[in-house]
From TrEMBL:
Pfam families: HTH_1, LysR_substrate. SUPFAM superfamilies: Periplasmic binding protein-like II, Winged helix' DNA-binding domain. It comes from the Bacteria. Belongs to the LysR transcriptional regulatory family. InterPro entries: LysR_HTH_N, LysR_subst-bd, WH-like_DNA-bd_sf, WH_DNA-bd_sf. PANTHER family: NITROGEN ASSIMILATION REGULATORY PROTEIN NAC, TRANSCRIPTIONAL REGULATORY PROTEIN NAC-RELATED. This is Transcriptional regulator.
Amino acid sequence: MELRQLKYFTCLYEEGSVTRAAQRLNIVQPALSMQISKLEEELGQPLFERTSKGMIPTETGEQAYRLFMPLLGQLLEARQTLIHRNGEISGRIHAGLIASAANQALASTLAYFVEHHPNVELQISYGYSQNLIDRVLSGDLDFAVINQSFQQERLTRIDLVDEELLVATGAANRLRVPTPVPLLALSKLKLVLPSRLHGLRIVIDHSMATLGQELTPALELDDLTVIESFLRRSDYVSILPATVLRPGLEEGALRAYPLDNPGLTRSMVCVHDNRHPLSPAARLFVDIIGKTLVTGLNAIHFYKEGAIDHELD
């Protein structure tokens, strides 16, 4: 029994299709089928039932998956540990990030990482939180940095940062509501928010639903940096993370108002498939981007003390 056969078996079990499994493994279908046949021959029992609807695991296949998965994870982790005993980090990382995480922390993280670990090949993709989760579960991504607004049994979560959400306007636009802004007053504002597919919007909508409220924005834009730029030029109001607002606050182009208790907070987390442990390179990358988000590694800073406007005209 070879490690390659276990990897092929678990992938075929998860995909349920020779075509999809071969694509995920980046091999031709005959090579996959041959290795599965060899494994079945060695075990003396069929692992899959071949049907027109795909590969259906037999009872033996179900049991094999439960037994092999923990072993495969331990073997892969042990192999990575031994490969990197000399302290050299290498390998390949395919990470997914929501756009706001990329805007805030990615450039600094990449600059540090490629300088200190040049033997690691990096590929970064962007997307909505749900789309990134799907790609993690399909094996297309090693991990994803998303808004914590989803629950999935197959995912392992690493908490990165909790960030306050603020009510934001252009510098010339003053709010005519009390500050800190009551959550129930948000529905009275001329809002621009991300669409309902956006992880940040899901966080906002979920929090408002607990109060029996639903926000109906006048305008929806999914790029938070575009919203920030639009606020500078309009009389619209938005609800955005502090780090997205930082440049505009420092330039005096924006105003930011705190929300009244309990406020709104988004939690940024890293998720990966709990059946596939992160490689040493991936764990290091996650650690660095987490520290960048929290402490402002390499020029990322939280909004300055006193930059938040607490007064009314």
